Amino acid sequence: MHHARFSVCRTMFPARLLNQRKAMMYSFFVLIVCIIFYFVICLGAYFVDSEKLLPGGPIKKELRTILNKTESSKENERPQNIPRTMVDNQHQVKKHQGRVNMHIFEDCCGGSLHKLRSNMLYPLFPNVRTTVSRLSISPQWTNYGLRTFGYIHPSVTGEYIFAVGSDDNSEFWLSLNESPQNLERLAYVGEVGDEWSAPGEYWKFASQISKPVLLVKDMKYFFEALLKQSEGMDHLQIAWRLNQDSSSFEVITSEFLSLYEDESSLLMGDIDHIPQTEASYDRFLESIPTSPNPVGDMIREDVRDQIFKIPLIDKSFTKDLFPECDYNPSYIIGTRIGRYQGVNLIHFSSVYPNDYTRQTYAHDEHLCFYKQDTSFEESKGFAGFLKEVVDPDVQRNNKEGPNWQRVYDVNPFDAGSKQTSFAVNSCKRAGNIVMSQNQAMPIVKAFMTALLSKDTTRGYSLLRVLNVVRRQDNGKGSRYLVELELVGSQGQKVLVSRYVYAKQTETPQQLPTLCSPKQFNWNPSATVHVVVAVKDQARWVVQFIREMEKIYRVTGDKNFNVIIIDYNSSDMDIEKRLKNGKLPSYTFKKMQGNFQRSGGLQAGINLVEDAHSILFLTDLHLYHPLNLLNSIRKHCVEGKMVYAPVVMRLDCGASPRAPSGFWETAGYGLMAIYKSDMDRIGGMNTAEYKDKWGGEDWELLDRVLEHGLEVERLHVRNFLHHFHSKRGMWGNSA
């Protein structure tokens, strides 16, 4: 009996063991399925939460039913159809401040928002920072741009449709939450500047009305509205309505709005709080990228713009390359001249190759450029350049109307090389005088012949001609700055940059004989002190510092120092901004009393101890080329020459990305001069220009010439003066 029971147990034990194993396998399988299902749910929640906008379009019946229930429930009840993560990430707002931020950018011509975005000060440096209580405005002003931003607070959960109306162009952007980084453009009026709508006219363009967007009660949504106004009627409205047949558009009013930032206690120099978004961001923090289809030739890529990147050849390699010669040009003054007569005695140098500083896209003053040529007859215009050729196979038709078979001969006409060198007579859109290839290449060939005859440079060959600058002395000869890119036997690229002199010869077929003008060399390591005096110009001061930081960031040039003399500005802490900046060196001094440009510049000059460093007396409102420091050094020679670069004054609405304007040939407010030379001529005239400015640059130029210094005068590519009116400048409200 016991034996039989034992046999049964032995038989049942393997069966139970097998069943337990199956159960464990089934349990393990169920566990794996649950884990996979859990991950699927989590991933789905993640992707729902990361959507930029909840789906537009008609709401399904089930969703509409849920929304209706939600609206009738208590205020603290969570909407059932909204993912929990999205609601948890929002800050519920019970108190609406009833206003939104508005930034105004004046002196900005044109009707398109592209003009506003191309403004050098946009979006960080507005003229005015204020607030408005509803999204419907009409300032009744001209040539400005507006940026309005803040939060919208829907009072009910539902789908909303937005509309925009404006004169001229406008855009409305909305985020899916309170973050400025999630913006999407929902509606707009025009893109080229000619489009507009009447107030409240939301149906003129298809782009004016948005698709439905789901918004949730007690959440806030960042928005941005932009307006660009040229002239005439100006207005902007942002309206909304629920996606229901019975609803109509209404302007968004104060009960649905709140500020992005309370700016009432902030200084104009405080800019870190200003949101940068896809709609509005700083396009000038970095240097302008080269465009394959630039608006103007001046912003095309040019090797001179990046010449500082090429290492200079070892100075010892070119020592004694040319014999030394006396350099006493006939145009050096060195004697007393009449007051403000210096501007009439300045000559321009010429350049090779063409640097395209001529404003070829300008529509006015174009004949001034051609009148410089003696063959141009104004009565005939350009018809005088055409010489008809008689075609024996064509019968001459003297009847009125076109004669399609008339043919002509035309001689080459290089107007750029025919410009007068007298600065006072120059066309203000003409740009630099351009040397012809026949004038420049003999100098280059003579230079290379000397290089190849020297043991230390015989292994180099010419890669390309970067820059040749000529200052002509009629009847005697010419001084040249020759800059060539060479390549060595090992493939190394170097820059040779030095001054030479060539006497005028009567046998142009022969290569000119070059010599090295005595004591006329530029110092590539000279420290440049950039000096500016300011008062209550916070947005321009910050922009100026950023420009200097840009040059340092790109070039890595540590041999320069920024000097700011501040007449007790109340709109920003300049010293704090300098301390937090990224400059190799700076000097700051606070002055009391009324603003004095001459006195401020002289105060900055007095801070410089090294007599063998260069002072660059400058101004605000400028866009600086990256090669500025390199250009200053090579055109300043201690005891011999100062540098007065010509800056382009931009037209209203023009920008560094699409520059148009005129060259300020009569202005000498920008000047680079060695400290030793500045001390020798007596510094700034602080006695006469104590309570005024304007004319101090001409007076300084007079003394520069009277002390026997030469003035190098060149138009500088991409050196631009931003357009601005005098309203609000130095306390001027006119």
From TrEMBL:
Membership in a protein family: Belongs to the chondroitin N-acetylgalactosaminyltransferase family.
Reactions catalysed, as given in the entry: an N-acetyl-beta-D-glucosaminyl derivative + UDP-N-acetyl-alpha-D-galactosamine = an N-acetyl-beta-D-galactosaminyl-(1->4)-N-acetyl-beta-D-glucosaminyl derivative + UDP + H(+)
Membrane-crossing segments per the record: 26-48
Listed GO MF terms: N-acetyl-beta-glucosaminyl-derivative 4-beta-N-acetylgalactosaminyltransferase activity
UniProt keyword annotation of Transmembrane present: yes
Organism listed in the record: Triplophysa tibetana
InterPro entries the UniProt entry points to: Chond_GalNAc, CS_glycosyltransferase, Nucleotide-diphossugar_trans, PA14/GLEYA, PA14_dom
SMART domains documented for this protein: PA14
Location in or out of the cell: Golgi apparatus, Golgi stack membrane
Cellular component GO terms, alphabetical: Golgi cisterna membrane
Record EC number: 2.4.1.244
Span of domain PA14: 95-256
A Pfam family matched in the record: CHGN
Topology versus the membrane: Single-pass type II membrane protein
Principal location class: Golgi
UniProt name for this protein: Beta-1,4-N-acetylgalactosaminyltransferase
Keywords: Golgi apparatus, Membrane, Signal-anchor, Transferase, Transmembrane, Transmembrane helix
Function of the molecule: Transfers N-acetylgalactosamine (GalNAc) from UDP-GalNAc to N-acetylglucosamine-beta-benzyl with a beta-1,4-linkage to form N,N'-diacetyllactosediamine, GalNAc-beta-1,4-GlcNAc structures in N-linked glycans and probably O-linked glycans.
